Amino acid sequence: MSTLGGSQATAFATGDRFDEKMLHVPLSDGRKISVPLNWFPKLRNATPEQRSNWKLIGNGVGIHWDDLDEDLSVAGLLGA
Fold first, then answer.
1. In whole angstroms, what is the distance from residue 55 CA to residue 52 CA?
2. Fewest Cβ atoms closer than 10 Å to its Cβ: which of 9, 14, 44, 51?
């Protein structure tokens, strides 16, 4: 059994943060995921205001940006 697989089920997003090239997502278990914005063109091309209009979905299973109609899951970001 994979340790990563077990921890994916209990790790939830607690927010998000952007810099010029990356999306950073802190997780409830203390880890932080950082992924290139180039992976997500809608987020890459969004204004700071659009990026700041987000909400957690499924109690942190994912993040949704209303203005962009974009959803990202923690499992997807972890490469599940």
1. 9
2. 9
Spatial distance between the Cα atoms of 68 and 66, rounded to a whole number of angstroms: 5
Dihedral of CA atoms 72, 20, 54, 77 in degrees, nearest 10, equals 20
| Full-model pTM | 0.84
Reported as type and span, the H/E element at residue 54 is strand 54-57
For 57, counting Cβ atoms within 10 Å of its Cβ (0-12 exposed, 13-18 middle, 19+ buried), the class is middle
Q: What is the pLDDT of residue 80?
A: 56
Paired tokens of 44: 């890459």
Q: Which residues, listed in sequence order, are joined to residue 55 by a DSSP beta bridge?
A: 64
